[in-house]
Amino acid sequence: MNAAIEAYQSLAQHEAAHAAAGLMLNMDVRWAHLDDDKPAGHVTIADGYDHDPQSAAIMLIAAAIADGHTDPADDDGHQLQELIDVHGVDRNLATKQALQLTATRQFERLQLAIAHLLEQRGHLDEHALHKIKAFAEGKTVEHTTKAATANRHQRPGRIHRPRRHLHRRPTERHHCSRRIHQDHRKMASVRQERAIALESPRRRRQHHRPRRPAHHARK
After folding, report:
1. What pTM was estimated for this model as a whole?
2. Is the per-residue pLDDT at 218 higher than 70?
3. Which of 22, 47, 65, 138 lies 20 to 30 angstroms, CA to CA, from 55?
4. Are residues 33 and 137 in the same domain?
5. Statement to judge: residues 173 and 138 lie in one domain
6. Distance CA 72, CA 66 (A)
């Protein structure tokens, strides 16, 4: 059972390397697929290998490099030999370019992401592949980071405006504080009058009774 799982994972990584190389070379990759009934898979290019033979050769060799060698085997080897014989592809140049491509961090991230989803789903269409590529390149993360940085001082749904009193002259701030102090005194006087009005008549008379001087105090 473990051997079957390892073989399936190895196949997913192989096909993911094909797809990752094709996407990085701007080839029209339509889908990546793993067969259910047999240990096989394939990556489909819209225009085939004849449209860009050099990129197709790099794509084939890149999957072999991901497997640990530089010579494609089985069907990949036959297709590479056909590109060399029919289109005159330089194998040494294609191998050098494939080595440079697979050594990049972008290829590693893209291959791992495609292989992980391909193991779970067994099939990835064009839309899913390009979405994975955009995520691996960090475009979505970068856009989100810029938006968060631009709005980090603002609350959601509110517009940030500078405080007006910061632009006032010193005299204006002085008059404003004096008016506020006068308003507080008026409000305190009103509250005191209301409290006196709610008291009983006897308490009200005692409240309004003039105070006696200190020398007329009772003995």
Report:
1. 0.61
2. no
3. 138
4. yes
5. no
6. 10
Q: How many domains does the chain have?
A: 2
Instruction: Give me the mean pLDDT over the 109-134 stretch.
Output: 91
Answer yes or no: is 213 within a domain: no
Do 138 and 100 share a structural domain? Answer: yes
| Residue whose entry in the numeric block shows the structure tokens 């204006």 | 172
Helix axes 126-136, 139-150, angle to 10 degrees: 50
Q: Are residues 203 and 132 in the same domain?
A: no
Residue 123 main-chain phi, psi, to 5 deg: -155, 135
Q: Are residues 99 and 8 in the same domain?
A: yes
CA pair distance 214, 185, nearest whole angstrom? 30
The C-alpha angle 95, 100, 102, rounded to 5 degrees, equals 90
The answer to which of 148-157, 163-172, 183-192 has the lowest mean pLDDT is 148-157
Question: Which carries the bigger pLDDT value, residue 142 or residue 117?
Answer: 117
Taking every pair of C-alpha atoms in the chain, what is the biggest distance, in angstroms? Answer: 132
Cβ-based neighbour number of residue 42 at 10 Å: 12
Q: Which among 111, 26, 23 is positioned nearest to 67, based on CA atoms? A: 111
Domain that holds residue 102: 2-142
> Is residue 147 domain-resident?
no
Paired strand residues for 124 = 32
Helix axes 126-136, 105-121, angle to 10 degrees: 140
37 and 75 fall within a common domain:
yes
**Domain match, 28 and 74 both:** yes
Radius of gyration of the chain (CA): 40
